[in-house]
Design goal:
mainly alpha; 5 helices; 93 residues; single chain; 69% helix
Length: 93
């Protein structure tokens, strides 16, 4: 649920807004961070602007693919285990 919420927040956030940051390095005053820009990249991607997404951070698109595959994997795993438990309870019942 956390990954889904994070993607939804990024989908509805404004990528042009630069006044907020949850990056600890940025908040400490360090200007360079390897992860800074990924949120903006994902936000641009959800708006369909692939070029701006790549410009904000080149790993934004792979990050979305990885996160979405993880979400799908978790839901499949939960569905699989629930179906096994349901099948076993029917057999034992």
């Amino acid at each position: 649920m956390i990954w889904i919420a994070a993607l939804l927040i990024l989908a509805f956030s404004n990528p042009m807004d630069t006044c907020y940051s949850i990056c600890p390095l940025h908040n400490l005053g360090i200007n360079w961070c390897p992860g800074c820009g990924i949120g903006h990249s994902i936000s641009w991607l959800f708006r369909g602007d692939i070029m701006q997404s790549m410009h904000a951070h080149p790993l934004g698109i792979p990050a979305v693919i990885i996160i979405l595959s993880r979400i799908v994997g978790i839901f499949r795993k939960n569905y699989y285990y629930k179906s096994i438990l349901t099948h076993k309870s029917i057999q034992n019942g």
